[in-house]
Amino acid sequence: MDRLRDSGGTRRWQIGFVIGLVTCIVSAAFLLGSSLFTAVVGVATLVVALLNALLSSPGETGTQQKWDVTALKRLLQVTAFTKGATLLLWSTTLAIACYGTYDWYRHLELRNIEGLVVSATNEPLNKALVGLTKNGKTELTTVTAEGKFRFENVDIRGLQGGQLAVDVQYRDVRKRVTVDFVARHPSQLVITMPQGSPPFRVTYFDIEGPAIDFLLNGELDPTWEKRLGGQPFIIPNEIFKEIGSLVKSFTEPLFVGGEGNVALDIVSPTNKSRQTLTEFSQKNAGRPLFVGSPEVLDFEIEPTRDDISSLVSSPNKWRLEIKSNLLRDNTTVFESTSSPGAVRVRPAFFFWRFAETQDVQRISIGHGSLRAFFKEIVAQSLPPEFAIVTLSPLGCGDVWQMDVVARPMKLRIVALENTSPSPLRLGLANLKENRTQGLRDSDADKAALQATPAKPVALLPQASLSPGEKVVIPLAMLLGLGPSEYERVQWSGLVSADRRRQFAAELSGVKEVQLPRFSVGEFGHPQPVVLPRAVFAQYLSQPNPNPALDKVYVWGTSLMMQDIEVDGFAYPVRQYNPEVLAMIQGVGVGSCPYVYTRSPKTRPWHREGHILYGLNASRKEATDEIRLSKFDGTVQIREEDREVSYLDEILVRETTAEGETHTLLPDIPALQRQDGQYISLRRGERLTVVFPGFSGAPGSQYTLVARGYYLPDWKR
């Protein structure tokens, strides 16, 4: 019985050892994981094989018995060592089970947080800073690679909903996303970043005058306009090609110096007032420059008898404007004549109408490349309000003047400049294009562009724009007058409709209205110009249409940019009021010199008005006069426009309180008589004239009488 009892106890220890060994192995497999456990088993097998080779001994049969089998048999012989080993195995198994249970529980409170940071166009964003925050405190940070990020084994113990979040910062944009950690394996976060403020500056410009040439050649000085200076990359689109063809075809050499000391002036947002570029102008003297962008396109054509006759035959075709500033102190536009039933109209008016195709054909070849450019622009169509024809006897003498005034060209561009400290990766730009050729109203062009579907276009051949670099996109070739000298001189100070009707009422009892006489050619015999009272009254009474001076036209291809993709974000490119970068070459209509006087009591100069108005050619030389409101024996003649005035005679006519008339001669001999000895005044020059015979008699009235003419720069 004792042997059986000992045998049963031995068996139990042997079974306990084996089960403990197996359990320990299985527990270790769970604890270490299949990969690590396999590696450990492999190492143990290798060790046992080596021990078998080194420690095995021959058995009773003479064959070699493996060391591991021998050791196992000995181990299964229940001894104190076997019992200790069994207890150790089970203790180890229990420890492994406890640790495994703890580790399992601990991993129930751990999460792997991963996700993807993308732009609004779902493009992965590199180098975005991602932070993991608990209760508002950042604990871990990383940087995205191809938009991806991952935080492993994040402990969520003690956290409640909304207390675990991911913060992303990309450039100047931040975004926080809370993490739902209830699920054992949270789904991947996809964080779409808002685009924030653009890392580039958008500026629209209207480029005028020779500045077009220098922009296309990358020669704009940064001191003129820092946002365009240097050598910006100009997108060679269809507009770039079209304006380049015009610039190449219609040029004239840059004239610098001469009597007027002509030089280029620059006006830009950086230089609000005109800055004369003397050195730059001299450097580029004689250089062919584009003629199609002066301050105004002004073409003088020779008026004919038919033009004058049409004032009577076609009163619905012409419109009459009266300039109140030329009436001076007169309260009416009429003056009496020696003919009964007739009145004469003071030379303070002009007729106008919109130009027609035949007017364009009458422009003489003397206007050179400017004429050729204008005919190219209107070759396909001449919009009804594009150009204006004026017919007037402005100034004194029997001189009628006829002009065709049209809109000059300017190039509209949009400039994009990288204002960030890092290179920008430019993607596609969504552009709308109108390839309609010829002239069209800008409103119609805008409507056509808005109705056109946008197309994605790659702007740059390279992928990035370095810090401070600029890219210029030509958008359209516009033609408009804008705030010009022509608008200021020709269309300012017009008599109101009410006052015109008052003038019409003054014609009661009048049979005919006499206008200044007209002569054909320079040496033709002056002929009377007479309008029936009813016709002139119709001119005064009928409402005049808007001359549409602010209307803008488009020629050739035009573009509208909707947005551009930068570093994965699509930024809208909104249309702003354009800045103006204008280079003035001295092409203008001119307006004649101005008279300044002083009062004996108040010394500051007072502007009286202008003289020689409209006498803008040598053949138009005539005598003009202006009533002086103040006079202390000295007058000052100032030339304020881009022209040269030629003065042959100046005198002052004094009318005393008793009605006597005296002539006061100037202290400059060349101006004391009409002798062809002219004194010239260039822009910015002043001539002070003293009249020694001035007595300052109380009640005397003074009138300045001057003879001469002036030449705008473009006519010299």
Question: What can you see in these coordinates?
Answer:
- The chain has 716 residues and is α+β, with helices and mostly antiparallel strands.
- The chain folds into five domains: 2-108, no CATH class; 110-192, Immunoglobulin-like, CATH 2.60.40.10; 200-294 and 408-482 and 552-584, no CATH class; 297-406 and 492-541, no CATH class; 594-715, no CATH class.
- 25% of the residues lie in helices and 33% in strands.
- The protein has 15 helices and 43 strands.
- Strands 10, 11, 13, 14, 23, 25, 28, 31 and 34 form a nine-stranded mixed beta sheet that branches. Strands 16-22-21-20-17 form a five-stranded antiparallel beta sheet, with helices on one face. Strands 24, 26, 27, 32 and 33 form a five-stranded antiparallel beta sheet that branches.
- β35 (594-597) and β36 (606-610) form a beta hairpin.
- α1 packs parallel to α4.
- Residues 50-55, 59-64 and 586-590 have low confidence and may be disordered.
In whole angstroms, the N-to-C terminal distance is 145 Å
Assign a percent range to the helix content.
10-25%
Largest sheet: 9 strands, mixed
Global morphology: elongated
Radius of gyration: 48 Å
- Annotation field: number of helices: 15
Please indicate the percent range of residues in DSSP E strands (runs of 2 or more). 25-35%
Mean pLDDT: 81
Which residues sit in consecutive blocks of at least 5 with pLDDT less than 50?
Answer: 50-55, 59-64, 586-590
Helix and strand composition category: alpha+beta
Question: How many beta-strand runs?
Answer: 43
Query: What count of domains describes the coordinates?
Result: 5
